[in-house]
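Intended use. Records like the one below are meant for learning the mapping from a protein sequence to its folded structure. Do not use them to infer anything beyond what is encoded.
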Amino acid sequence: MFGLDKKDTSLLIVVALLTLLAPFILNPFPSDSAMAQFNAGYPDLMQRFVIFGIFAVGFNILFGLTGYLSFGHAAFLGVGSYSAVWMFKLLSYNIIPAVVLAVIIAGLFSLLIGFISLRRSGIYFSILTLAFAQMSFALAYSVLSNPKFNLTNGETGLQVYADDPQWLHGANMPDVPHLFGLSMRSTYTLELGPWAFDFNTGYYICAIVMMVAFYLAIRIFRSPFGMMLRAVKSNQQRMNYTGLNTRPYTLAAFVISGMYAGLAGGLMAAMDPLAGAERMQWTASGEVVLMTILGGAGTLIGPVLGAGFIKYFENIFSKINDNVLHGWFAFLPDGLEDFVVTIIHPFVGKGWHLTLGLLFMMVVIFLPGGLVEGGQRLAAWVRSKRNKGQDDETTGKTEPAE
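Structure written out for the chain above:
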């Protein structure tokens, strides 16, 4: 189906089902229960899951296939956001021209940075991309906010104002990002007893875009171009000795990866029409590296899982404070309750990075292939148990020969 083999088609269907049923899957606990704290099925967070999934899938095309580790991909995310907001300011709130411009500008910007950075490899390439990203952050934060040609609005961030031209904005169009009049913020809430499920227009638009991006990533992975990128990762020096120039392939991978980042940036602006320089910081670049490694670099679904995992921790565990902890352990004696809360306190709230760091260390040490490897090991263990049970059953039914 769609030019994919049976295995890739099954993977695409699984991802599609998980994405479409996310409002149910991410809201397992009743709204009025103590465990509702761990529900993640609200529109803003679900949109972040799929948007950063796109970001990580694109980064994986570069890092997972070629082995080139970029520490500057946040620059393309930020450029995409700024481009989309400018489309909102000049044309209208329709997300189509905004996202298209975000992808184009991010692609051109990545072509420039990639052309220079790919003259080096290894740690030197990583440092060059980090330097470009930090320069981009500095430009967005200060230089390009000069009142004479204010392109980024500095630390305040670029946003849409009532006096902006918006030449194509119709009188009947909503004053929020929309798709031909369908507001990105439009949400339908389905209540089933104590459960509440939100179906948000913006989420499903972003989810469809992610499915298309995921499908294109599969085609790239399985194409001759993808095989060439794997060869670069395996032994680029040997390929150069044969007279094959690998730079056009690595540059193409870098540009495609940058366009994915620009697409994610444009969708972030569509979710919230505001672009700030903080999206270009080195921490944002490091975050997508963590997502890819945690999920499984070089795999198809791994970056999506890693993005969801990290964004879940960032948004759920960071909201757990001492009051929530005391509510959970109120059944304990006062002294023991305070002791347990004191022990857990450094790992939640503002300390959620500590929990994430520990989990990341455990994954790197025990599951070098990321969450995908963990799933593969679990599936292999279940199959071995099932086969062993069938063998025991067969042996028990077989009568000994006389």
